[in-house]
Amino acid sequence: MRRLFPVIDPTAEDEAAGGDREWGLGELAAAYAYPEGVWLRANMVSTLDGAAQHDGRSQPISSAADMRIFGTLRALADVVIAGAETVRQEGYRPARARAEFAELRQAAGQGPAPVIAVVSASLELDFDLPLFTSPLVPTLILTGAAAAPDRVAAAERAGARVVVAGDGVGVDPARAVRALADLGHTRLLTEGGPRLLGQFVAAGVLDELCLTVSPMLTAGDAQRIAGGPSVEVPRQYALASLLEEEGFLFSRYRRD
Q: Can you tell me the distance from the alpha carbon of 132 to that of 123, in angstroms, rounded to the nearest whole number?
């Protein structure tokens, strides 16, 4: 990231300090700090015409600054939640320990890296991937009580911890949040995909959305950042902060 320009930052103590300059990781960590209690944050990227992906992946519409904020948000989280399809498409790997955030995580009582939690009804996952074979902390799988016993057994043999968060084959979003909190994970981050984010939105459990607006147009029929059935009444969120670099906008909205 070369430069970040704070356009709106209500939490800044010194507006003059946020001029035309690069923001350090410490400043980003302070700007995106979690509040007290259980808090579910989403981090997504969208083009100007609403595409959340290009050719099935988010990387082509991202940027270096977006990835730096992506890394900061992960470094602040207890757990990163992702849908099984996103794990497959994006080639998810275990979260890594980063020396720049080691002291901050230790002070917050966190382990060296966040846990990855995969939401999957079928558990049709490749358990030979590094996400399961070599994570710093065991990967979690959130599933329903009716998940196939042989797939549950395969996940557990691979070293994953299976957490039931639904009475049927799928996961109940509110129950997933509670289950993670019961495990001591209160700083929650979801990176999608769109279907999972839509479920969190519909269930009314999303506290914050960190949305990168990419200055690109893709056309086509790519997914939006949230999918699934629409909510009965649109949910109102309040703008908490807005940063900009080379046309990329890094917004943060909180539940109003």
A: 13
pLDDT tens by residue, 84-121: 998 988 888 899 999 999 999 999 999 999 999 999 99
> For residue 52, with 0-12 CB atoms within 10 Å meaning exposed, 13-18 middle and 19 or more buried, which class applies?
buried
Q: How far apart are CA 139 and CA 95, in angstroms?
A: 10
Contact 194, 226 (CB under 8 A): yes
The pair of structure tokens assigned to 51 is 């595409």
Q: What is the pTM of this model?
A: 0.90
Tens of pLDDT, residue by residue over 124-138, are 999 999 999 999 999
Cα 112 from Cα 61, distance rounded (Å) = 29
Three-state SS for 72? helix
Task: Give the C-alpha separation, 76 to 146, whole Å.
Answer: 33
Strand order across the 79-83 sheet: 5-8, 237-245, 248-255, 208-214, 39-47, 187-190, 79-83, 115-119, 140-143, 161-164
